[in-house]
Every structure is written in C-alpha cells, then in structure tokens.
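Case study.
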Amino acid sequence: MLEFLSKLFGRDSGSKNIAKERLRLVLVHDRTSISPQLLETLKIDLIKVISNYMDIDEKALEVSLDSKGNTVALVANIPVKGMKRVAGA
Amino acid sequence: MSEVIVVTSGKGGVGKTTTTANIGTGLAAKGYKVVLVDADIGLRNLDVVLGLENRIVYDIVDVTSGNCRLRQALIKDKRLDGLHLLPAAQTKDKTAVSPDQMRDLCEELKKEFEFVIIDCPAGIEQGFRNAIAGAEKAVVVTTPEVSAVRDADRIIGLLEAAELREPKLIINRIRPRMVRQGDMMSIEDIIDILAVDLLGVIPEDEMIVITTNRGEAVVLDQNSKSGQAYRNITRRILNEDVPMMNLEDEGGFFKRFKKIIGLK
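After joint prediction, the assembly is written out as follows.
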C-alpha cells in the first residue's frame, strides 16, 4: 500500500533519479576530460606498480572517478590477496 | 546601447530556433528594434519558423562575401515593425563565413538595432564558433533529458573558454506532471548540475506546434502557458525582475492531497 502510494505520488522511486545519477557520472568524465581509455591505462599501470609489493586480485580491481560538489576524487578499490616478501626487508 | 545575444545548446532539436524567434518577437512587440541572425548555414530554418520563407532574396553569405549590401538582405517581419531577419544561406556550408566576418557583421548590425539575436547551429564546430564570435551574451537552451543537459554542460564550458561569461539557461519542454511523479528532472535538479543562472522555463505545449505550423510566434499568444513563459523571458532580458511562473495547473488537487497525507 505504501509502495503504491509513493508510486502514485512520485516520491523518489521515479526514473529521474536514475537520469540524475547517470548524468552526474557522465559529467565527471566530461568535465575532467578523462576518457574511459585513459582510466583503463591508469588501471594497468596501477596493477603493475602494486603487484611489485602485494598480491592483488586484478579482476576485481575497480578504478573510477567520483564527484561531490566541486571536488573530484579518484577512487580505487583494490582487493589484496596476500603480501609479497620484499627482497631485503 | 545594443546587445548581441547568441542562442545555443549543443544538442539539436531542443528549441534554439523557436526560442530565438520568440525572444526576438517578444522584444519587437515591446517596441525594440531587433534583428534575428540565422547562423545555421546550410540548414536554414529561422525563416520558416517566422513565416518569412517566401521573402528571401539575399542571405548572410551574400552579405559577408560582398554580393549585396547588408540592408538588401534584411527581411522585415509581416506584423512587427521593429523585427528583422538576416537569413542563413541554404546552399553553402558552415565554412562560408569566418568568425572575423561574423564579428564585423554584428558590429554593423549593432549600429542599427537594439538587439541582435543569433540562432546558433547545433554542434561545437565551426558553425558554433562563428555564431558566438560576435556575441556579448549567451543563452543556453536545454531540455530535461540526460543528453541535452550533458551537451549544455559542454557548451557552457566552451562559452566560458571563449570569454562569454555567465551564460543564462532556458529549460524547454518541461512536463510538470512527469516532474511531480519523479519521472523527469526538475528545474532545481538541472540548475544544481549545471550551476548557471536560470533565464526561464517553458512547459511542453501544443500551442508551440500550432503556432510554428502557421509561421507565428507563440509569445504573441495571450492564452497559452508557453506564450506567457516567453513573455517572462523577454522581460527578464530587459532586466525586469519577473518571478518564475507556476507551471502546476493540472495538479491542484494532487498537491493539496499530498499535503494532507504529509508526503510534501
């Protein structure tokens, strides 16, 4: 009943939130002129560097841009499977 | 003191030409001397929207290339004494005019008219650069869709890079019922994302189709919401302080009901 009501009166389940979210993400890329290809190259480089120190799950690695207000952040989620023994440590 | 205003959007089909025609007609109806410049070379349309397509002899390229004098290419409106059109060329392309030529042309037009309003082509290439070259102010038209708002954001960036600071936004074709249902981005949503000043909002209105079919401007129609919206925009361009009109007419009952059950 509540769901029906909120649908009828369009509280927040409407498609406009999807539009806003998609727009927000697309604009983060547009405004910083960082292309998905560039992000992909960055990701490969990150894997290379971090692999020297840690054993990471390359498939689950996520790199994305996010924005809050006027600031943009590079968010990297890198699952670590194990640490590597660094020579000389 | 005259003003040169460019009407632009990035995306096609959002209502640049309709907006140009209505702002121009609105200003002329208030007694100002106005010239509308169709900068969409190769895809001439402002003439048909104004219902002046049968009067074209010379066009903008004839003027810039010296085939005729400026005065010969200007077409006077059927109804309003102060309204004139400088039509685009239909058989040439965007490169037929250069930004320098556009700047010179705008300077010439400023001597004779109080408002020079330029209808910009869609896109961000040469046609866009030509259209904005001689402008002092910019109006960006968008609709409440992801693609149109995205392109508007890009255009605002390009305008600011070209020293056209503080462009003003027009949100066209808004559907209050869908906004209320949460199925269309609201005025606030769009302003929030684009961070520009709002010049006006035009509701989706069948009267626009009907008047455009006739080659008339809806701004002269006293009974429609869209006509009222364009009259408000005209007054804001004249620096009058006009409150945003209430678009919610069919929702009176629902709004009251929502209040009663505490949803808003």
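Observations recorded in class. Chain A has a mean pLDDT of 80. Strands of chain A lie at 54-56, 62-68, 71-77, 80-83. We will return to this complex in the next lecture.
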